[in-house]
Structures are given as structure tokens and as C-alpha cells.
Amino acid sequence: MRDAAESLPLALWRLARPHQWVKNLFVFVGLLFGHAWHDTALLHASVAAFVAFCLASSAVYAINDIADREQDRLHPVKRLRPVASGAVSVRAAGGFASALLVAGIGIGQWVGGGVALCLIVYVALNVVYSLGAKQVVVLDVFFVAAGFMLRILAGTVGLGIPPSDWLLLCGLMATLFLALVKRRAETDALAGDGSEHRAVLGTYSPVVLDNLISITAACIILSYSLYTMSPDTVKIHGSERLIYTVPFVAYALFRYIVICHDQGRGGDPSRDLLRDPHILAAGIGWLLLTLWIVA
């Protein structure tokens, strides 16, 4: 039964998880690193693709909340989600998800068939994830990473911008890193009782997750560094100075690992990455320096 203290529109807004839309900024990777921001048509197409992914991802969150409502009620934080708490009924959440999905794919189709295809695959992957893939150790992390990679592909291949192989590899490592950190935080938050909330969480051990996080962090720094020095990158941007942005990436990664261990954060990367002043400063510094170099 819906909590009388919260209106349905507000509950639906929470169900959409707008703070998670920051993840969809991966759509703009192609525009930035493809040196295509001066193309008005591509800029408009990228913004539309971003909006389409915001709608589709919110639909997926609503679907997941419906499927996970019983398990979420056992979680100290997730039990407050709209469906788990009863603020939004299963029927209302289903209708909301359907409307968002139709709108998102419709906008994607308007942008282009490639973007629409990425959206459809994204939704299909999340359905498979909810139906059972999320219970398979390691595979669950790759499914989460695949969702991020589809955003990158929608903003590159989907818009006709050829992506760099090194950039795609860096994107894959970054998304795996975020997914692994999220798992690490979830196991900590449940204090060893993760299997009661989700069976796969009981399979992960902190030592294994720490090792995997270290591997992916190292791969991010290495692949991004190689990308900045790639002859194709130098040719596209007309500069060899992108290598100077690597320290910002390394600092942000190291800082994120520290706050996940010492402050018990990391369960919600979209919030954690935006509320730490050091990571924010590193991100802004990286963006400003990158824009100054490539522009």
C-alpha cells in the first residue's frame, strides 16, 4: 500500500532514479574523442541518444525493482525503494516502465537504427540479467559492464563515429571496475549475509573482489595511457599532449578505491563519484585539460 506521506508522482520520480542518468554520459564519449563536437547534427543526435538511454535505463530500473522487490525488502537501504516499500504498486511500476521504454526506443529510432538497436540489446540484456544472469558469479559483473559499453557504442558506432580500439578497451575496463566496486560495497553493507539478499553476493569474497578491482584499475590506466599515445589519436586531435591527462585518471581511481575501503561507499557509483570533492576536482580537471588540448 502506498505511503500516504509520499505522492505517487514523487514516488515514480524516485523509481526512475534520475541520479543514475549520469551513467548515460558515456554516450558522449564518441563526440568528445571523435573530435566531432563541432558537427551540429551529431551533437543533436548525441543529446537525443542520451535522453533515449535515460528513459530506457529508468524503465529497466523499474522492471528490476519489480523483480527484486522481495529481496530488496531484506536490504538495509534497498528496502526503501518505491516498489519494495509499497510506495508504488507493481501494476503502476509496470505501466510506468512500459511508457518509458516505448518513449526511449522511439527516440532512439528517430536518431537512427544503430542507436535503437543498442537500446533494444540493452533492455534485452537487462531482462536476461534479471531472469538469472545476476546470480552467476563474475558473469553478473560482465552484464553490468555490457550495459555501459552499449552506451559507448550508441554514441560512436550508432552515430557513425568510428571508435578507437584502445578507447573501447578502456571503457570496458572502467565499466568492469565500477561493477566490481559496487559488488564490494554490497557485500560489506550486508556484513557477510549477502546470500540472503542475493545468492551471488555470498559467492564473492572481499579478497577476490579486491584483486579484481586492482586488476581492472591497472588496466584502465594502461589502456587509457596507450590510447592517448596512439598514432590515430594524435592524428585525430593533432596533439601528443593528451598523455598529460593520465594523472587525473589515476588520482580519481585511487581516491575512489580509498573511499570505498575506508568510508564504506561504492554501492552507488552515481552518487559516490559526484559527492567526493577530490574525485569531482579530478574529473573537472581532466575534462578542462582534455577540452583545451583537443580543441
Task: Give a verbal description of the structure.
By secondary structure, this protein is an all-alpha fold. It has 2 domains: 7-163, Tetracycline Repressor, domain 2 (Orthogonal Bundle), CATH 1.10.357.140; 164-295. It contains 15 helices and no strands. It has helices spanning 8-16, 29-33, 40-67, 69-72, 82-85, 90-111, 113-131, 139-155, 165-189, 194-197, 206-229, 231-237, 246-262, 269-275, 277-294. Helix 7 (113-131) runs antiparallel to helix 8 (139-155). The termini are far apart. 42% of the residues are buried.
What is this structure's SSE topology?
Layout: H1 8-16, H2 29-33, H3 40-67, H4 69-72, H5 82-85, H6 90-111, H7 113-131, H8 139-155, H9 165-189, H10 194-197, H11 206-229, H12 231-237, H13 246-262, H14 269-275, H15 277-294
CATH architecture group name of the largest domain: Orthogonal Bundle
What is the CATH class of the largest domain? Mainly Alpha
Give the number of DSSP strands.
0
Structure classification: mainly alpha
Task: Measure the end-to-end span.
Answer: 54 Å
Q: What is the mean pLDDT?
A: 86
Note the beta-strand portion. Answer: under 5%
Unreliable parts: none
Feature tags:
295 residues, mainly alpha, Tetracycline Repressor, domain 2, 15 helices, 0% strand
Task: Write a concise synopsis of the structure shown.
With 295 residues, the chain is mainly α. The chain has 15 helices and no strands.
